[in-house]
């Protein structure tokens, strides 16, 4: 391609030179014909001048040709540089194509993994739904089992008989005592405590199961004393007791209690009032039905 371009440019300049010489020769012949027609003689001096002029013009043409060659050489160098850059670009393009193919392969593999992960997720969802149904069924069975156990306990309570199966207690006060206001009275001398549901350390009876209970209490005041007490179940006051100057106050109540209730005797809000101990004051209760 490069050699063809050089030959083409040189051929153009040669043709231009030949054309120029032909034109000059035609001018010379025309000039001679004109001189002959007018009867003038062509002198050698005139011909020399014209030849000199032709040489000058030829020299200028030659210089222009040399300049064209210089520019052609520069163009050839630039073309060579362009070819080098073109080869470099081709290599970069080839490398980019290789990387593109690698990326396409990675994308394809990622798509395969994504599809596999989606399938696994779908399977997990199916298993999760199945597990939820199983848990729901287990909960239903558990509730059914709890109900059955509760019924068994009820039947067992009905079957078990004898004095040891009936919650019952009696406790007295061993020493004279002046209880502070709103304080639970601890009957510390335990006489009977079937099932250990009365606590002498707290003064509280805790029924083990729901039912009717007979609860009794007697308080006796010391000489010259006025004593006010109350029977409580949890946060509710049920009955009042009163004693003065060695007299006794007694309360008997049939109460419907629930397992876990707190039953106790408590001093009311009035200050003072000494309670006789030595088993004169007592707290008692037992399960009826």
TrEMBL record:
InterPro entries: C1q_dom, Collagen/C1q_domain, Tumour_necrosis_fac-like_dom
Domain C1q per the UniProt entry, residue ranges: 162-289
Top-level taxon in the UniProt lineage: Eukaryota
Annotated keywords: Coiled coil, Membrane, Secreted, Transmembrane, Transmembrane helix
Location relative to the cell: Secreted
Residue ranges of coiled coil: 62-148
Keyword DNA-binding: no
GO cellular component, as recorded: extracellular matrix; extracellular region
Pfam families cross-referenced by the UniProt entry: C1q (PF00386)
Transmembrane spans: 6-24
UniProt protein name: C1q domain-containing protein
Annotated organism of origin: Mytilus galloprovincialis
